[in-house]
Write a structure and sequence with these properties.
The protein has one domain (about 5-130). Helix content is about 70%, strand content about 0%. It is built from seven helices and no strands. By secondary structure, the protein is mainly α. About 15% of the residues are buried. α3 (about 35-50) crosses α5 (about 70-90).
């Protein structure tokens, strides 16, 4: 996606994530840095993994009607990124830590097998200890 598409995608989904709280905030996605946009997109993908299939399908229809990428596609992309991190064998950044931690914390997630989850939990522990418990 490009910056304009990212902003449109987030404009449509963030009110769904935060409801009434979002309406009270005076937050403009268009003023976000590229890094902030990437973090928001990751948060949306993580949020989407916690939704029912019916709700994801409903949101995908809204996104498709607005000619935007589907939430399902975003969720698959973050799963692919997570698998690449695991294949590499170590976590490089707080963003990668948050991605893996969010997936492992989701009891219903099917991104990793039981064996892979053990490996990911070990990687998370090593990253956290190397950052004196200050990983985000």
């Amino acid at each position: 996606m490009n910056r304009r598409t990212d902003i449109q995608f987030l404009d449509l989904l963030l009110p769904q994530m935060f409801g009434a709280i979002w309406e009270k905030e005076s937050f403009s996605i268009s003023t976000c840095s590229d890094r902030q946009l990437d973090m928001l997109l990751g948060d949306v993908a993580e949020w989407g993994r916690g939704l029912s299939k019916v709700r994801v399908d409903e949101l995908d229809r809204c996104l498709e009607a607005a000619d935007l990428p589907l939430l399902t596609t975003m969720m698959k992309g973050s799963a692919r990124n997570a698998r690449q991190i695991v294949a590499r064998g170590h976590i490089k950044s707080d963003d990668e830590f948050r991605l893996l931690n969010g997936i492992v914390s989701d009891v219903e997630s099917s991104v990793f097998s039981a064996e892979e989850k053990v490996s990911v939990e070990s990687m998370l522990g090593m990253y956290e200890s190397s950052h004196n418990g200050n990983a985000l």
